[in-house]
Amino acid sequence: MDELNTFYTTRHCLIRDSMFSTLIQEQWLILQGGKGSGKSVLAQGVISAWPYRALTISPLNRKGYLWEWVIIADSQTDNSLAGKIFPVEKLWEELYSAGTVTHGSMPLFVLEDGHRISRGLVSTILAFMTMMPQARLLLTGIFNRRQQRELRVLQPVWFEIPAPDSKDYRKVISSHAGIGPETTNTLPEQFIRRCMRRCDGNLHLAARLGGVIRRNKMEEEEHAASIIDASLQREALRYLPAPGRQGLTWLLLLVLTVLCGGGGAYFARPLSQWLPPLTTLLPVEFSRPVSTHARLMAETMSTNESLSLLFSVWGYEVDKGEAWCDQAYRGGMACLSGTETLETLLSDGLPWVATLEVDSASFPVVVIGGGENTLTVLSGNQTWILDKAWFSHVWTGNVTRMWKPSPDGNASITKKSSTDDIVWLDTMLSRVLNVEAEGTGEWSSLLTEKVRQFQAQNKIKVDGVMGQLSLIRLWQALGESPTLIQERGTI
């Protein structure tokens, strides 16, 4: 096993000390770093210095879809919870009832590899903030962009472990090889560089390399201060992964791009830089045949293709064979089908699928924008600007639209809502309004005032009730929901 026990580089020591002092003041923080960057070592360092009880918790996957939390370490030997397994949604409730939080204590919970929890991580953090205000939480992981965006909404203190440099590698290898700091020429710089290319930021691999050198030197009964010769260097590097040929790969991609670009410029017409081709349809008399719009009907979409396009507008790539309304829950959305007025849809400001009927033929389009006299729609790979009067004439009134409810899936948030929904609403409104969040989980008069202020800013009926339209505007303000493109400044 590649061990990196109780050894810290200079930067690790600075991060560890800073994390410890931060946790004294802040309720929780996040530690992010690549594979083998030393997240567990830093967390263990904080736990070792923590004066109260500390529990290390890791995600556990069962049956490929069921996630649970398992306690892998407990600093308290009496009534230790090590080995206990808890459901994801009941972790803090079970720990609280188990007496992990006592009067005057400040327990530390370390959630390792939090990035493995694809759903429910944010609700887990919100539940902790509500149920255990005097406890402390350290969340570690390798979070992707979506997870980072969701977590940063909660405004945590964020620590990120930088990529190790040659000094870090030298210290790790020397320490595990038993080489003293006074022997400066034992590890050649070229050898360190080759190690860096193979380890790719994983200090555990560097520790493995140091262990190999230690074993070989013990077998050969050489002194620790002797210079490591080329044969021992080659032998040690054999225990590391082969170096990636990224330079050659990028060179081949560059050559291929140049060839394809040259061929495209020679054989094809110029392509649009951003949106699909834009075609403007002029108003026509309703008494005349609508043959002017034959181009719009030339390449019509199926129902699944239109839903796949609507998912794409929301930022999700869904194959048309799987694009069904009942799959919207996977993205935390609700999908509704029915009839609605054009004024209501434009007021909501969300894209929708509209069914048009021309010459007894029905076909869907995705409406993504509107103005005083026009609507912008997508159909296949084309973008069209339609006359609003003509659209109203051929539109059947049938719509399919998606919207994002509360994290608990509710269409509104009131004083009777769950604690998670109220904490989320308070946190998100405070972020948008740039004010401080209460974090109590209770509906207060201050929260009502925040709702009213947000509604006034977004020109919504000011009633202090966080209904569907207010939720839509909040998700849009947070950048988590698309908005209709406004043409000519009016909708």
TrEMBL record:
Residues 310-403 form the General secretion pathway protein A peptidase C39-like domain. It holds the Pfam family PG_binding_1. This is Putative general secretion pathway protein A. Residues 419-468 form the Peptidoglycan binding-like domain. It comes from the Bacteria. The gene is gspA. InterPro entries: GspA_C39-like, P-loop_NTPase, Peptidoglycan-bd-like, PGBD-like_sf, PGBDSf. It comes from Enterobacter cloacae.
